[in-house]
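Researcher: Good morning. I'm working through a list of sequences from a screen, and I'd like to move beyond sequence-only analysis. For each chain I'm collecting a predicted structure so we can compare shapes side by side. This is the next one on the list. No need for commentary yet; just the structure.
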Amino acid sequence: MWAKVAKAAAQKRGKSVLFSGNLLSFIVGLFKKNVQLSSVFGPYTLVLSSYNPPKLSNPVVQAWVIIFAVTLIWGSSFLLLKKALIVFSPDQVVAGRMSIAGLVFLPYAIRHFRRVPGRLWGRLFLFALIANIGTSLSYALAQSGMDSSLNGILNTLSPLMTLLVGIIFFRQKARWLQTIGIGIGLLGAAVLIFLQQDGKIGMINLFAIFSVLATFGNGWMNNLLKFQLSELKPLEVAAFTFLITLIPALVYWFASGAMPLVTSHESGLQALIFIAMLAILSNGLALLLIARLVQLSSPVFASLTTYLIPIVALAWGVWDGEHIWLAEILAMFLISFSVYLVNRDSR
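Model: Good morning. Structure tokens for this chain:
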């Protein structure tokens, strides 16, 4: 039924539809009753227009479905990043990811371009540098030298870094329980930073430092959203920041020699698909789902993803043959407990 509705809507606009299935209609059903989205990537066009999706009358059920979907998407992103790095270098992966995400968000950014006051473009440019270049590159550099499960666990530091950046740079006040939580979280991070390939504590793992820097970037992003870009919706911020980096990312992607690898390397096309999945799912769909989740519940409930993402990352790591050490489990519980303390005292 969905295929017929989508086809009719597309024909009305003279476009083609290359997407169908019950899964999409179910995802769309989590949003408003009448959905009108248009996203173009190359010759492929996705149109959702004037569609009345199936209703999930219970908001609690909707919220838990979104929690599961977001956890699966973001928890899987570390393994996708690992597989993409088999073919491409960290900078090429970031350029490809930003290029595809920019193309996906381009129609929305063009349509809502006038919504951005001129005084906010400087802040959006700073946000783009931190999010699309600094944080993404740090995650890719980290993943190039350590297990995806370890990268996923360290990502749990993001809420702590958000509070820490708020305290240091945005004059945010911390309660004593939050301060204790930050200390416990940093202790857990230290265990992972000094963890060696054999599971023993030794010298500093420089790749883990990159992962911690990425969470520090996440902390900056969250505070910029709260204190500097609160006039815009999260989806608008994402669309305009990807618009800012779109042209430079495309130029760098082609100039770096990434495209020939797609055909010359035996896993080139597969790696490109993984990059596209990171861009479309992690940077696109998950953001929409999180925004809807906050509408249905609260930011505190949405923070449950913080505890579940490392579990998914660990599961994928085990599936991919990674060794999971007792120290990693201990550090994960320490960081998760610290996030619980920070969130509990912020209610």
